[in-house]
Design a protein that fits this description.
The complex is a heterodimer of chains A (473) and B (291). Chain A has 473 residues and is α/β, with parallel strands linked by helices. Chain A is 31% helix and 24% strand. In chain A, helix 1 (15-26) packs parallel to helix 7. Chain B has 2 domains: 34-114, no CATH class; 118-291, Hypothetical protein af1432 (Orthogonal Bundle). The chains are: A alpha/beta (473), B mainly alpha (291). The structure holds flavin-adenine dinucleotide (FAD). The site of flavin-adenine dinucleotide has 40 residues of chain A, from helix 1, strand 2, helix 2, helix 3 and strand 4.
Chain lengths: 473, 291
């Protein structure tokens, strides 16, 4: 078997692998990218970010149509087919996949279609879909093999009645009811999307509220919207058993004794890293106790010329972070300045309504600075929200109690994932709260919420001594 | 199905004549389409009605004695491994599940209702066996791809619905086809079943992904299918797997593994091995579904 030589070999073409490969190519290196799927793009394009967001957008458009139907005197067909929602999805996904492919080609990256595994710490063996093999040798190797849905052994996922976040994307009709197991990002996103499509959704999780890692003010808003659209959250629960009743319903029995019946069930209980086919031991690597590839702050594994990036190294398991890790790892490997501080990477959660945050939350600021200045803008106070009929939401500005420098922004409400970037720029440029008061934004826009929150913050700051203290939280 | 190479010249003349008849009838839209049996029609509607419940299906099945008897027989067959003997329809429904039951009811009512073709019972049964195996493999392929499996069975089951239809038309044309050997009829069936199946599917208003599968499931056409349900490409492979299972002389394992559709579905050699290992599950399920 002949072995081809490359400066950088990247395994996996999701956001992490792509950005690693492009960074390498832009630095003038010879880069090989190995992908086991037919198309490049990873879970992000085919089973994660892009399809779920497209479905969300279609669902929102439908629900807007439904709300305005009376005003404009038209009627939406009762039997809007999931297939119609899904064919739009298919179109968006294919177009995005093509764009990714073009980008790789433009950058001169060589693509290999096959499943990779380590032969040694420098060599990777590729098995093609036809069963033939070839080997690549890389001075630097980047593992970016991503993740897949975690399915506990006790839950019999059959992709027919009991689905995971992959198979839910190929539903052929909207179920009447859906149980969602999990309280994390994917669970909350799908639960709220299906709820606005008119499906009776029940979320079940061990935590007392969904999205526990977020500021409770944000989750409270999400919760209110979810209940308003008919959703239900059953928290603090352990699952006793999930089974298809062999007839028409999935039965979820909880340890508390409660039973939840639904037509379909979605298992969204986290992700597991794709490492099985890699044989990382052949490269001298061991997995962590959670089955992840161990890395340092620069995404470097204990074998110094092997890096691992994206979902395969665990949380936060976001495409945005995966991209940044890919870029950063290759810059580190090539001895280039990694740039941007990862603390300033925003997080976007595409629930209905959207949630987004950047920098420190109120609690984190109190922990780090002994207190925090906080200002809020409720969307119902903002003219643009009134005009577009989306008045649920709040923007929260967090600032340093001493210097009044902005430390973080949290937003819940439609447009949150776009609005957050103004906050991100403020953080990157170390701006003070006053900057928002002195700045004129377009009117009417949602961005006005920054000004309103800044004014609120300044108004709540009667004197330096009365900033919210750790005890006051 | 093996085809005899010895065909009498008069039979060839008749085959040519029949080919002209079929071409003309298809061109002029004169095919004698059988009506979808009342029960199958209702089963299909129920299976695609998100508001349907098991009770409605049970009522429907109870109205049709033959169907009820077949369902009980199937529910008790070893392929479905009942924990205890199934003695009531309600129990059968609970054991088999609404979707499986809808599939069975639909298949049974088609087999016994529409395509009773006197003199060719064995051949029709072989066609059905193949269609059923295709439906069952279709589900397994979809599962392997982590693609929703609900649609795959129906697409596989009905992808060659045009075959019994063509046979039905040929046999109805008694003067010409009486006593014609299968070796003459089979090539005609293979030649005409897709356009005939498409006609039938349109007339019966079968779901769009099923219509698309009938039209495009073959190796040289599945690229033209557009439905995100992937029914055509999944059925293409399922159809080959069914042939490999039921008629191994028709296809060697190496030839099966070299099919482009496997690559196009991005199934690696180990994925195909896993599918082939399911033969022992699929075979008994097929046998018990045959009326
Ligand atoms: C439903 C859902 C919604 C999401 N929404 C968002 C969102 O809104 N915003 C956000 O930022 N993130 C979101 N994410 C997360 C995001 O999709 C992931 O964090 C991101 O895709 C991770 O990128 P990655 O490159 O690490 O891995 P992946 O995208 O998983 O790509 C890994 C690639 O490696 C390939 N591979 C695996 N093993 C091998 C091998 N041995 N040989 C060759 N190739 C191999 C895989 O086929 C795959 O293509 C969502 C995820 C899901 C599931």
């Amino acid at each position: 078997m002949t072995t081809a030589h490359y400066d950088i070999v990247v395994i996996g073409s999701g956001p992490a692998g792509q950005k690693a490969a492009i960074q390498g190519a832009k630095a003038g290196k010879r880069v090989a990218l190995i992908e086991q799927e037919f198309e490049v793009g990873g879970a992000c394009v085919y089973r994660g970010t892009i399809p779920s967001k497209t479905l969300r957008e279609s669902a929102l458009q439908m629900s807007r149509f439904q709300r305005t139907a009376e005003v404009f005197e038209f009627k939406l067909r009762d039997d809007v087919k999931v297939a119609s929602l899904m064919s739009r999805l298919d179109h968006v996904v294919k177009t995005h996949g093509r764009l990714m492919n073009d980008q790789l080609t433009r950058n001169g990256i060589e693509r290999f279609h096959g499943r990779a595994r380590f032969a040694t710490d420098r060599e990777v063996q590729i098995t093609t879909v036809e069963g033939t093999s070839l080997r690549l040798r890389g001075e630097v190797i980047v593992i970016a093999t991503g993740s897949r849905p975690r399915i506990p052994e006790s839950i019999p996922v059959d992709h027919e009645h009991i689905l995971d976040s992959d198979s839910i994307l190929s539903l052929v009709y909207l179920p009447k009811s859906l149980t969602v197991l999990g309280g994390g990002v994917i669970a909350s996103e799908y639960a709220s999307i299906f709820a606005i499509l008119g499906v009776q959704v029940t979320m079940i999780d061990t935590a007392d509220r969904p999205l526990r890692f977020l500021d409770q003010e944000l989750t409270d808003e999400f919760f209110a919207a979810f209940y308003k659209s008919g959703g239900r959250y059953v928290g603090g629960q352990q699952i006793e058993e999930v089974a298809w009743d062999g007839c028409s319903r999935v039965v979820t029995r909880l340890k508390s004794g409660e039973t939840v019946l639904s037509e379909k069930l979605l298992v969204a209980l986290g992700r597991v890293a794709n490492v099985e086919s890699l044989d990382v031991q052949a490269a001298g690597l061991d997995l962590t106790s959670r089955g992840l590839i161990p890395v340092n702050h620069q995404c470097q594994t204990p074998v110094p010329h092997i890096y691992a990036v994206g979902d395969v190294i665990g949380p936060p398991a976001l495409a945005s972070c995966a991209m940044e890790q890919g870029r950063r790892a290759v810059r580190h490997a090539l001895g280039l300045d990694p740039g941007l501080d990862p603390e300033h990477i925003p997080m976007g959660i595409y629930t209905v309504p959207e949630i987004s945050s950047v920098g420190l939350s109120e609690q984190e600021a109190v922990g780090r600075y002994g207190g925090a200045l906080v200002g809020r803008a409720h969307f119902h106070e903002i003219a643009r929200s009134q005009i577009s009929g989306m008045t649920n939401g709040v923007l929260k500005l967090v600032a340093d109690p001493t210097t009044e420098r902005i430390l973080g922004v949290q937003i819940v409400g439609e447009g949150a994932t776009e609005l957050i970037h103004i906050g991100q720029m403020a953080l990157l440029n170390r701006l003070h709260v006053e900057s928002f008061v002195d700045t004129i934004f377009n009117f009417p826009t949602l961005a006005e919420a920054y000004r309103v929150a800044a004014l609120d913050l300044l108004q709540r700051r009667p004197s330096r001594s009365s900033v919210i203290s750790r005890d006051g939280l | 199905m093996p085809t005899s190479s010895i065909v009498a010249s008069t039979d060839l003349d008749r085959a040519d004549e029949l080919r002209h008849v079929l071409t003309r009838r298809l061109d002029e839209g004169e095919l004698d389409l059988p009506l979808l049996p009342h029960v199958a029609n209702q089963v299909l509607t129920l299976a695609h009605d998100p508001n349907a419940d098991a009770g409605k299906l049970a009522t429907l099945i109870q109205q049709d004695q033959a169907l009820a008897a077949q369902i009980l027989r199937i529910a008790n067959s070893p392929a479905y491994l009942p924990r205890s003997p199934i003695v009531s329809l309600q129990q059968a429904i609970a054991w088999l599940g609404l979707n499986m039951l809808a599939g069975i009811a639909f298949s049974v009512s088609l087999q016994s209702g529409v395509f009773k073709i006197v003199g060719y019972e064995r051949e029709v049964q072989l066609l059905w066996r193949h269609a059923l195996a295709t439906g069952l493999y279709g589900k397994e392929i979809a599962r392997r791809l982590r693609h929703n499996v609900e649609n795959a069975f129906l697409c596989g089951l009905l992808h060659t619905i045009g075959k019994p239809l063509i046979l039905h038309v040929l046999v109805s044309d008694r003067q010409r086809s009486m006593r014609l050997p299968w070796s003459v009829l089979e090539p005609l069936i293979n030649e005409f079943h897709i356009p005939a199946g498409v006609r039938l599917a349109e007339a019966w208003a079968l779901p769009d992904p099923v219509q698309e599968t009938i039209r495009f499931y073959q190796d040289d056409r599945y690229h033209e299918a557009r439905s995100p349900t992937k029914g055509a490409v999944i059925t293409c492979l399922a159809d080959h797997l069914a042939t490999f299972l039921l008629d191994p002389a028709e296809m060697e394992e190496d030839a099966l593994r070299a099919l482009p559709v496997i690559r196009d579905l991005n199934l690696y050699p180990e994925d195909l091995t896993a599918l082939l290992d399911l033969a022992d599950t699929v075979r008994p399920s097929v046998e018990c579904l045959i009326v």
